[in-house]
Amino acid sequence: MVEPGTQRDDAGGRFAGRVAVVTGASRGIGLGIARRLADEGASLVLTARRMDGLEEAAASMPAERVRLVAGRAQDPEHRARAIDVAVRELGGIDVLVANAGINPVYGPLLGLEHDAARKVFEVNVLGTLGWVQAACAAGLGDRADAAVLLMSSVTGAVPSPGIGWYGVSKAAVAHLAVTLAVELGPRVRVNALAPAVVRTQFARALYEGREDEVAARYPMRRLGLPEDVAAAAAYLCSTEASWITGQVVTLDGGLLAAGGAA
Ligand SMILES: NC(=O)c1ccc[n+]([C@@H]2O[C@H](COP(=O)([O-])OP(=O)(O)OC[C@H]3O[C@@H](n4cnc5c(N)ncnc54)[C@H](OP(=O)(O)O)[C@@H]3O)[C@@H](O)[C@H]2O)c1
Predict the structure, then answer these.
(1) Ligand 1 centroid to 10 CA: how many Å?
(2) Is the pTM of this model over 0.85?
């Protein structure tokens, strides 16, 4: 028997015949999302800086439905190239997951180096906006059911000691999602996810060697997994979420409800 809500529209999955671009897709959360969309039938353009990482990531996906474009998310030429591959080789673009993000600085805001601060904004905020601009310029929204998903963080909602500037950039990403949803409706839905700590290379410093202690702060008593984020991402980008736009969805195992910070 099929559980209520788990039945898919056809054997091809919710994303059959649809084209998605996922940035930062060679590992971690981006890879989890890309795998999920591929499993549900999407054709995909995957991006990251390193081609070897992309090739490894794509090895488990159907080659005929996947294209790889290496480059820096903050580089306008790279963005244009990746979107162009989606349009010319896969036939268009229906879904953009602007996931790539960085956090190279640690420490209090009063000691923040402005060059490092600019780099964080260049990738996390302007890069994210640049992907949406490039996708829309190439026709995102011309077909029905277009969706954009941005990657914010719980650090954008509550202060997180040591990674304050990253949190400021993720608050900006959350506000981008809400503002773009208003600007791009009804042709394109725009939402964001705001995860707490997810077990990836990026977040390793936040839990390595003390995972049980960190997980104990979460009502669900575990850290997030890329698959947790992927499930929410796939829902928000699917037609099942066609009346959901302008939302920043927290994925945190209950951390904020319990009064915790990332
Ligand atoms: N993990 C968490 O706890 C957590 C929580 C909240 C939000 N997030 C957000 O989720 C997103 C993904 O994080 P993650 O944990 O999955 O990180 P991750 O495991 O380090 O993966 C990052 C991905 O982005 C690519 N990347 C990094 N810098 C890039 C750049 N400048 N241009 C293009 N691609 C780049 C990486 O490949 P290359 O190295 O080859 O470029 C890799 O594919 C980020 O926006 C992060 O802020 C993460």
Answers:
(1) 32
(2) yes
